[in-house]
Amino acid sequence: QVKHVAVLVGSLRKESINRKIALALTKLAPSSIKLDIVEIGDLPLYSEDIDVTPPAAYTTFRNQIKAADAVLFVTPEYNRSVPAALKNALDVGSRPYGQSAWSGKPGAVVSASPGAIGGFGANHHLRQSLVFLNIPCMQQPEAYISNAGAIFEENGELTERTKTFLQSFVDAYADWVLFQTRPQK
Ligand code: FNR
């Protein structure tokens, strides 16, 4: 049956390019997977002190990740690394110790920047955490969307070139998710 993918967007701003890319991916995704954005902007900064009695936002978020079959990250680069909001979400989902919501969920990373290097630094810093969180991450195709201020036409549609690339990316990711979640003997 259809696999559910939790999409985490690393930018909190309304007009975020990364959010627009995430929304475009939800539309391009093949019917074998369903993508839904899980919001991370209301998660209090992680502290073990407040987690003694977890805030509702933590519990809701953890349940959303646990309910998903897979996770997809679409993020900008902040100061050559992962935006704090996204790192915070990774941290919240990883606790309480031994009850991580992430473990085993197949993942992939898209990074986008108006600059020339396509958020490479964020993309790879994020992958470092994904190794530890036991999120098997699709290796290819990689997705570094550079010059991302120019990937949408005036009517809001993706340029043909980017659309073609994102289609191939999300098709490969669907295959990755199905393979990683196949029934075990
Ligand atoms: C940025 N930006 C940025 N861009 C980049 O390519 N490398 C970087 O290290 C940074 N650092 C950075 C730090 C902070 C705090 C901000 C706010 C921005 C620019 C960034 O790529 C640009 O604002 C994007 O448009 C952000 O993505 P969204 O919000 O459009 O998805």
UniProtKB/TrEMBL annotation:
Cleaved signal peptide residues: none
GO MF term set: FMN binding; oxidoreductase activity
InterPro entries found in the cross-reference section: Flavoprotein-like_sf, FMN_Rdtase-like_dom, NAD(P)H-dep_reductase
Residue stretches making up the NADPH-dependent FMN reductase-like domain: 5-148
Keyword set includes Flavoprotein: yes
GO CC terms in record: cytosol
Known cofactor(s): FMN
UniProt keywords, alphabetically: Flavoprotein, FMN
Pfam families, alphabetized: FMN_red
Annotated protein name in UniProt: NAD(P)H-dependent oxidoreductase
